[in-house]
From TrEMBL:
Native organism: Pseudogemmobacter faecipullorum
Name the UniProt record assigns to this protein: DUF4177 domain-containing protein
UniProtKB keywords: Signal
Secretion signal span: 1-20
Length: 94
């Protein structure tokens, strides 16, 4: 029984970080000339919300001259595959 408990705790510990990953999909723009992009970025998992993702992504994008238009959604690793093709070069870039 003790071995089973240790195995269960170990499984939960190892699964924790993977389950806690947070990602956001967003839209951004640059002016002169106007450029738009849709992207996917990993954000902090401590508060996986659109508000927290916005605060985190704005300075990352601004460092390269992009303005964050909006965060569309936040999601876990299970949503990555369906967004990868649409994000193209902007997939996990920021």
């Amino acid at each position: 029984m003790f071995k089973g408990l240790i195995a269960a705790l170990l499984a939960l510990t190892l699964a924790g970080p993977a389950a806690a990953q947070c990602f956001a999909d967003y839209k951004a723009k640059k002016d002169n000339p106007l450029q738009l992009h849709y992207g996917v970025a990993q954000v902090s998992d401590s508060n996986c919300s659109a508000r927290a993702a916005t605060a985190e992504l704005q300075p990352r994008l601004a460092a390269d001259g992009w303005t964050l238009l909006n965060v569309l959604s936040t999601f876990g690793p299970g949503g990555l595959d369906e967004r990868k093709a649409n994000a193209g070069a902007w997939f996990l870039r920021y």
